[in-house]
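ARCHIVE CARD
Drawer: 12
Card no.: 0347
Subject: one protein chain, sequence and derived structure
Cross-reference: see card 0346
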Amino acid sequence: MSIRVLLIDDDARLHQLLSAYMGQNGVALESAGDGHQGLRALAAGAFDAVLLDVMMPDMDGLAVLRRIRARSRVPVIMLTARGDEADRVVGLELGADDYVPKPFSPRELLARLRAVLRRVQPEATSRRLVVSGVEVDVPAREVLLEGARVELTAIEFDILVALLRRAGRVVPREALLAEAGRGDVVVSERTVDVHISKLRKKLGDDPRAPTRIQTVRGVGYVFKQERA
C-alpha cells in the first residue's frame, strides 16, 4: 500500500467498516477517536489525506479543520450526518476539499477520495513516478536510474514508492514500517534503516552525504527533489 489516510471520527464501527474495504483497494487507513488524537497523529505521521467527522465531542471537526489548515495543505474530506447547507459551506470555506454526508457507502467514499487526490495531490495515485533521475513504473514494479534498470527487493521497492509519492516531505519511520510490513517478514525500525541503506547504494547515493534519500534525525527520511 502506498496511500495513507487518517480517519478522525469517534465511531469505532465506521473504522472497522472502512479499514477492510480501503485495505483491499490499496489504502492504509489509520484512525483517531477524537480531534486531539487526530492532530497528534498528523503531527507525527505522513498522511496523503484526512477523513474528518464534523460531529465529535470536545473538539468538533470544524475546529480540527482550522488547526489542520493553519499548518498543512493535506487534503481533507469532511464526513457528517448533518444535512444543513450552512455547515457544508463553512467547511469548504475553511479549506475542506470535499464533503460527504452520512450515511455513505465505502465505494462512494473511496471514489471521492481518489478524485480529491487526483485533483490536489496527483502523485499519490500516479502509476508512474519520476523524481531526481529516478523513474518508477508502479504497476510493473520497475525502477530506472538515469535510464538504467535497478533491481530492488519487494520491500525496497515499496519503501521507495512511499518516499517518491511524498518527495520533498519527511516520511516518519512508522509510516515506512506500514509500507514495508507483510506477513512473511518481521519488520522493525532497524529493518527500515537497513533497507534505506541498501536503497541508497542501489541509487548511487553517497552514504556519507546522501543527496537523494536524506535522514531527518529522530523522525525518518525525505527523498529530496531537484530544484528547477
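Annotation on reverse: The chain has eight helices and twelve strands. The chain has two domains: 3-124, 128-223.
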